[in-house]
Amino acid sequence: MAIVEVKVPDIGDFKEVAVIELLAKPGDTIKPEQSLLTVESDKASMEIPSSHGGVLKELKVKIGDNVSEGSLIAVLETSEASAPAPAAAAAAAAPAPVAAAPAPAPAAAPAAAAGPIEVRVPDIGDFKDVAVIEVLVKPGDTVKVEQSLITVESDKASMEIPSSAAGVVKELKVKVGDKVNLGDLVAIVEGAVAVAPAPAGAMGSPPPQPSPSGGGSTAATPERQPPTAALPAHEPSAPTGNLPHASPSVRKFARELGVPLEEVKGSGPKGRITQEDVQSFTKAVMSGAAQTKAAAAKAPAGGGGEALGLIPWPKVDFAKFGPVERKDLGRIKKISGANLHRNWVMIPHVTNHDDADITELEAFRVSTNKENEKSGVKVTMLAFLIKACVAALKKFPEFNSSLDGDQLVLKQYYHIAFAADTPNGLVVPVIKDCDKKGVLQISQEMAELARKARDGKLSPADMSGACFTISSLGGIGGRYFTPIINAPEVAILGVCKSQTEPAWDGKQFQPRLMLPLSLSWDHRVIDGAAAARFNAYLGQILADFRRVLL
Ligand code: CAO
Fold first, then answer.
1. Burial level of 454, CB count in 10 A (0-12/13-18/19+)?
2. Could you report the per-residue pLDDT of 92-132, keeping only the tens digit for each?
3. Does pTM top 0.70 for this prediction?
4. What pLDDT digit, counting tens, does each position of 163-213 carry?
5. Closest ligand 1 atom to the C-alpha of 378?
6. DSSP state letters, 299-355
7. Measured distance CA(149)–CA(192) in Å, rounded
8. Within 6 Å (CB) of ligand 1, which residues are found?
């Protein structure tokens, strides 16, 4: 056993940086290189690792203290097994001078040069392939010298990369998620006034402080800068953009838990988010005391309306008006309810209503069933509708697609779902590859899936992979309705009970069997004209099924 003192290693020219977070407490067992505390300057935060392993006896600093290289930060009791790291390893454990504010890019144009200037990643120490986690400006923005352009982050430190020139950002050469290294091109700044290259050895120089006028304290004098009146107020020292104020380790912790850091309220100095804040947020969400914004957007009726800016769901004591009974919603109702609600709220639905003349088709269906009586397979109108829809999906491929961000995924397979009413609620089984199956096979599979649905025996595979859904209330009644699209599909066909109606044939009224069709479609993907054409084409096929063969 030995007592060792842990001191702040070489952190470049950083002097008097503030301790903003303690990452260990007396009694903790510390591994060599484990972070003990976080320090922060205007432009960067970094974690200070322990040079030794052992049990933490005493912390010699507290939040708010300022430390520099050599400051005593902790006392450890070490064992043989966790002996001090060899000199080389200790050096490696010392944070690279990445956390120091980067010097202006050596590639910058000579001082006071005007015209397009390439702003590159300056010397950021030994750090390689650091990820861009935030882009703080956009093309067209006017930037000052030393104004932060991007934030990069490694395991142990985050830092803002400043502009070496003042002017207008013409082009950004990096995006969030890119990895950058010394000398990589970050942006092109035009009409620029460049800062003179930093003198040799200034790699770890402290961050330039903004002057009271907002200009940098570097070679760019206020005279050289473009007029600042129109500049956006962007204080480089403040937490910028939407990036929550938190240390890299807290960010990593939040990422691991899937906590949206921007929704966590920081309790640390300057509103900094601590590990405890992330833990409290997680606990509150798990206990139901709080909700993430994403969950609130998905909340079922009766909750979450506030997140949409709506007035709260009415709370009524129904027993005041008469006897009531309370019943829990069943599992399927809860699941389908949440899905229906999301789809209704998130998809801009439009529904087109139309009628299809199925006089001949129904006669054919009835005669087919008579002929096939012995086979035990009953053909229903829904099976014909499935085949007709496949033909319409082939003719109008955007109906057989899904939205994926800014892209449309056009499917080349034809799996059709149908809504099935069961004692436990609505389920949506899927008949796969309907383009390759005949009406008899589809009828057979549909009967089997409907039976499984009623018995509660559908497997997840039976209910996945659909391209398009049909909801048939034909066996029940009604005229038209608005079916809700089954995301991520982009359309759904609702069908009601067919009725014999008088239809004018040019000379006289004829009794025709008319099937009401209600097609709901996602207006982000489909236009009204396409929807009307889809319905009309469906009507033509149902009126003369031979068209399916064309
Ligand atoms: N017009 C007139 N009659 C129709 C018809 C239509 N569009 N569709 C079906 N029928 C008739 C059938 O021919 C059958 O008559 P017979 O018994 O005399 O032969 C009767 O109605 C019952 O049909 P069915 O409902 O058993 O068969 P189907 O293939 O039409 O439907 C299924 C199967 C599983 C879709 C259906 O049972 C079902 O669950 N429908 C409800 C779907 C639903 O709830 N949708 C709403 C979703 S949104 O909340």
1. middle
2. 333 433 333 444 444 333 444 467 889 998 877 667 888 88
3. no
4. 888 899 999 999 988 999 989 999 999 876 555 443 332 223 333 332 223
5. 19
6. PPTTSSGGGGTPPPPP---GGGTS-----PPPHHHHHHHHHHHHHHHHS-EEEEEEE
7. 15
8. 380-382, 418-421, 426, 450, 471-475, 483, 495, 497-498, 515
